[in-house]
């Protein structure tokens, strides 16, 4: 597959961060934190939406977004409410987007920016520059190059042999550099990096990287500008890997992060659905769990009436009652 590889260097600093993040991902998976409990998933999704929109100037708080999700009336600018409503719908559809398909990326933009701008779900055709104050800080490539550049960028992420953690950071930077849409580029770049990461590491679906970016928003823009000036995305790769690492640290540092028997049982319900399963199936999902702990979990679930047991000893099978 032929494509132009974007310019960047895998420096010793990048390699050290890559190793650190890979080890943290391993720790998250070992502790079964890769699919948090329902309430934590909801809280992290709200944090993601609030943070990615706050970076773009949205004024709504996590509490207001929670109230909106619960169909309560809130006082906020109509534009801010619509941005949040669009983001909720978009993030609920994360699994429906195809990470390497331009058409799917356009569909995501259409949902995310619905009612906010006229040109939703279409690449810009005109030329654009980014102005901060009275200074033009970035001149994006001409409109007639955008489709070709975006297709090349998606092909690079799909086919290049570099680690996906690095490639998604490169994608994020190059996406902002190309500036493919009339508006919504910042939130789309962050969204699509998550979608690309989820394909290899499902834990990124519920990891609110945006909240650690928002906390360091000035440095986020500085890293983008530094990469612009250097003509390569190395500085931005370092920034993003550092902040992915921070988000993973926050997940690993949470008290009671490792699921207890009851939460493991409820998490497994999403896997088993209405089908029957065995202790072996349960152990296959919770890798690292001892046979004795799995047996104890299933005994507790049976006694609580959450699952019903059939058969005896090694031939036992289970199914969820509700």
* The CATH homology group name of the largest domain: Fido-like domain
The CATH architecture term of the largest domain is Orthogonal Bundle
CATH class of the largest domain: Mainly Alpha
Strand order of the largest sheet: 1-2
Write down the CATH topology of the largest domain.
Fic-like fold
Order of helices and strands: HHHHHEEHHHHHHHHHEE
- What is the approximate shape? globular
Number of helices: 14
The oligomeric state is single chain
Mean pLDDT: 91
What's the structural domain tally? 2
SSE-based structural type: mainly alpha
Could you give the distance between the termini? 49 Å
What's the alpha carbon Rg, rounded to whole Å?
A: 22 Å
Give a brief description.
With 322 residues, the chain is mainly alpha-helical.
Structural descriptors:
322 residues; mainly alpha; Arc Repressor Mutant, subunit A; two-stranded antiparallel ribbon; 4 strands; 5% strand; globular
Structure description:
The chain has a two-stranded antiparallel sheet. A two-stranded antiparallel sheet has the order 3-4. It folds into two domains: 12-253, Fic-like fold (Orthogonal Bundle); 261-320, Arc Repressor Mutant, subunit A, CATH 1.10.10.10. The chain has 14 helices and four strands. By secondary structure, the protein is mainly alpha-helical. The protein has helices at residues 12-30, 38-54, 62-69, 78-92, 102-112, 146-159, 164-178, 185-200, 209-215, 217-230, 234-253, 261-272, 279-285, 291-304; strands at residues 129-132, 135-139, 307-310, 317-320.
